[in-house]
Amino acid sequence: PPIPYEETRRILEIHLKEIWYTLRSLEDHIPAQNFTQLQDIYRVLRSHVINLRANDGYELFRQKETTELANLVQGRIKLLQNPVNCDTARKAVCKLNKPCGFGCQIHHVGYCLIHAYATGRTLILETEFWKYDSAGWNHVFLPVSDTCTDSGKNQPQHADVIEIPYVDSITTLPNHLPVSIPADICRRLERVHGEPHIWWVGQFIRYLLRLQPSFQNEIKEYVEKLRFQSPTVGIHVRRTDKITYEASFHSLEEYMVHAREYFDIQEKVRGQIIRNVFIASDDPAVISEAKTNYSKPGWRILGSMEVARTAKSERYGLSGLIGVLKDVFVLAECDFLICTFSSQICRLAYELVQAKHADASGRFVSLDSIYYYGGGNSVIEVAVIAHTPRDPQEIELRLMDNIHVDGNHWNGMSKGMNLRTYKRGFYPSYKTRNLVQRVAFPKAKWWLG
Ligand code: GDP
Questions:
Q1: How far is it, in rounded angstroms, from Cα 360 to Cα 355?
Q2: Which of 98, 102, 341 has the most ligand 1 atoms within 8 A of CB, as the residue to mutate?
């Protein structure tokens, strides 16, 4: 499809969502009858945009192009990880056992693999004393390399081996880390994907999380037992320790509002559907609350208390690992995700969603943060519509101003710092767009031979 067409179609969808966020924030100030009518018009418009995409004749191209790009990137990672001569290959060693949860550890290894890719080094993953599985990474996942697993650290004649530090301890971040994307595929990628930086991360996560056949079967059986079917909305509710220090509490109803909205729009397109909702949580009480309060006619509430229980009782052992994998993989199968992007588990699932569909951008609602990569480069937006502040809390935007985003308040307004004026404050979210950070990966030409 022509780039201006694809961009316009995506912007149309984003701006319609902004209308909804703005409208929701005004609900108490608009007479109920008018509010309902406006909401219905919004849903009709969203259904038109879905139909537009389905019928514009480009969907096959989108799918083909995304598959080709994925094959290209997967092939390159495989090549990097299986050098012709392991003894002489340049290597980067990454220690798996970062002292944090599963999502955080996978994002740590993901950062290592992206760094290895960008610098043309084979990643050697050291997995001793892994708190999730004492038998090591290769027990559950396919090895990151079939042919090159020795760092060669003890062979000084081949000493081109570096150890990758935790990203939190780096003072000057390399600009090839997420949320950047590589310049050599950016044109193709931006054409077919609305969130190319998340798709890019998703490719590395997908490579890493290739399961060993026995665990793959276990997940498959779990999905079959759930009687998973499309369309399913995935809800991830992160509670327990996260609420104490890192995130706010959100009631289940706050998530369900968005699930209803998703299905109301889908029904305008497809007619009446079964409303499948899969709930994942580290708190089993959330699953039982969902099943008790929301199993109404027309709704199927899926989720496993047993799996959630492993997160509470045996979090850092093999059963906790299998539990979180079941939840992450089922969330990744869902058509739409509702969660808090402050949680690494939810961001992990959303990254995997990108690897499953052609342009899966926008298939989420986050109740808190925008998408980011922990420890990576900051998310920057660019002003595409100028803004004159209406009160002292707001900031001015001139066309092409870059904004360092603090957060989206999901009420039509975002907060951030204008990098031209260094003023921090609010601005209407629809007036900016994510700035795709395209970076040349000069050392990553190893795939050319
Ligand atoms: P974050 O704390 O949510 O940002 O993510 P981390 O990866 O740092 O740690 C979260 C840990 O909580 C995971 O490793 C899991 O053990 C557990 N957890 C969180 N959410 C879920 C869930 O939905 N299901 C299961 N089974 N475990 C979860």
A1: 8
A2: 102
